[in-house]
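cron nightly-structures :: item 1 of 1
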Amino acid sequence: MIGATISGVTFVSVPGMVRGMDMTYMQTVFGFFFGYMIVAHILLPLYYRLNLTSIYGYLGTRIGVNAYRTGSFFFLLSRMLGTAAKLYLVCLILHTHVFQDMHIPFWVIAVGSVALVWIYTHKSGIKTIVWTDTLQTFCLIAALLFIIYFTIQKLDVGFDGIVQTIRHSEHSRIFVFDDWMSRQNFFKQFFSGIFIVIVMTGLDQDMMQKNLSCRNLHEAKKNMYCYGFSFIPLNFLFLCLGILLIALAGQMQLELPAMNDDILPMFATQGYLGQSVLILFTIGIIAAAFSNSDSALTAMTTSVCIDLLNTDKDTEETARRKRKKVHLSLSILLAFFICLVEMLNNKSVIDAIYIIASYTYGPLLGMFAFGLFTRRRTKDRLVPLIAIASPVLCYALDWWINKETGYKFGYELLMLNGSLTFAGLMLLSGKEKTVETP
């Protein structure tokens, strides 16, 4: 699960975020931890009790078939865009810094990367993913630690000096309580972190598929606790690396690149930290990218087959044949979206991913909240319209409020989006009935 979350985007973007927003990302990470606890104690027991292969089957049981397929569609849209954005950054780094002398086109690297993922996932499914993700996660964490070590060696100030460098840096600020207009305000970041985890882990087929492969609910909860706890120091190390790189740039009188995502690649690929770091950096981002992309591709294949094509009702041979076709089709679509993201390049890819999640996961949040916390029935045939209208209305509100007041929504857009979906379902629901909520 760490490998599925710590993508190549995290590996590159989080250290670079320090220059633009200091270490305030930790406020979101603290929110993540509480989000994992909510998933462990509310959603995991539900999924295990219903014995679900696809978690969106709950929406079909609780609301109706249209809600079921709408939830699956929004997962597919969210995961496809998110995975494309994450894999794009890795392909871009490989294209710009590793294969630049070979003059290999970007699209060739994108297709090649997806093809490698497809090769080792099209046969064994989740069993292959668990073991390869474990190895890849070990590689990316080891690469991070070694890069930090070589950076410290280059600074040559000793352990106490490193602590002082981080503590007294102008970018060491973690908490923001005084500026309500800022996107880095603690309450916005903290509560956004909670809801980001609920939707991007608890309502995500990719992440839940791993937990549902545990032997029982107790093991799944233990897995979630360990994962939630380990995520805090890991992100803190990424942010500390960012501060150390900025300090090293000042010491060496280097001009940092305009894009934050280019800071770590610049140090790793231009020889400032030595040839060993280039090798470690390449291993780290490839391991991170593949551990995220392979599980995403497998989860999307499961969702299409189970939720949209109903292959669980087919014979084993027919289901296997359909799954292979879907797996290949999604791989081709993923390569296309990577090239599309390259055309729409954003200054911070991780920020773009969370904004995308705010729009695409919001309807899922609203639908699951309606199912879990009410005992009402809504008009199932209108659920797709509500799910589409909510993010559109969010976009319009964000534009209007920014124009009138100068306030710009951040990740809290996710909570607004989910609330609008929930409100829409409530408005169309009938009188309270005695409904057995699964």
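cron nightly-structures :: done
The mean pLDDT is 85.
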